[in-house]
Design a protein that fits this description.
The radius of gyration is 17 Å and the shape is globular. The chain has two domains: 74 residues, Glutaredoxin, CATH 3.40.30.10; 118 residues, Up-down Bundle (Glutathione S-transferase Yfyf (Class Pi), Chain A, domain 2), CATH 1.20.1050.10. It starts with a strand and ends in a 7-residue tail after the last helix. Helix 4 runs antiparallel to helix 5. The longest helix has 35 residues. Helix content is 58%, strand content 8%. It is an alpha+beta fold. It contains nine helices and four strands, in the order E-H-E-H-E-E-H-H-H-H-H-H-H.
Length: 213
């Protein structure tokens, strides 16, 4: 198989950033093909790679793969570098649990309601929607509390042994905590905040900021 790796996606996509963080943590060189799924012409290009027209998509030689969790699992298994899936069964299960919680319950309130409305929309001169921000903050509290319980076990989200859970949640938390309210809510969770203080200092977070805000 050709060893070249290309990440197809949109720079504002939090899920593209998840994959970028994983690639960085694995020390893998890769190229980026920018495709805007909201542009009608570029969206047609994307649908040739992803039947649902979403990002990201990974190309590794002749192999093409979509869906973030599938991509990150593949990258960890197919390449040398630090292992990002724990061997210990409980830690591996909690890693998968963190990713599932983040996708099912965290992404919408933390990104689409809090970050997008409080941080990104004003940056684009669109103004914020206070009602949506309030709903997002309310829903985010239960998510942070669930993650706090997992972080308190120290199997994952400990800031030392990096797993796919750190990469997945790290991309979300970096945007969520840019909202002052998101930052305050995170600080209220002792173990989660301790993890985030370590995680946010890693080069995979500090060096891969596509937002410019």
């Amino acid at each position: 198989m050709d060893s070249s790796v290309t990440l197809v996606g949109f720079r504002h996509s939090v899920y593209q950033r998840v994959v970028r963080i994983v690639l960085h943590e694995k020390n893998i060189e890769f190229g980026v093909q920018e495709v805007d799924p909201f542009d009608p012409i570029e969206a047609e290009i994307l649908r040739d790679l992803h039947p649902f027209g979403r990002v990201p998509v990974l190309r590794h030689g002749t192999f093409t793969l979509y869906e973030t969790s599938a991509i990150t699992r593949y990258v960890d298994a197919a390449f040398d570098g630090p292992r990002l899936v724990p061997e210990e069964p409980c830690a591996a299960a909690q890693m998968a649990q963190v990713i599932a919680i983040t996708d099912a319950y965290g992404y919408w309130p933390m990104i689409r309601q809090v970050f997008a409305r409080r941080v990104f929309a004003p940056h684009e001169d669109k103004g914020s929607n206070e009602a949506e921000v309030a709903k997002g903050l309310d829903a985010s509290q239960a998510v942070l509390q669930a993650l706090e319980a997992i972080a308190s076990d120290k199997r994952v989200l400990n800031g030392d042994a990096i797993t796919l859970a750190d990469c997945h949640l790290g991309a979300i938390m970096d945007y969520f905590t840019r909202a002052p309210e998101g930052h305050t809510l995170t600080q209220s969770q002792l173990h989660l905040d301790s993890w985030w203080r370590k995680m946010r200092a890693r080069p995979s977070i500090t060096g891969l900021d596509p937002q410019g805000c």
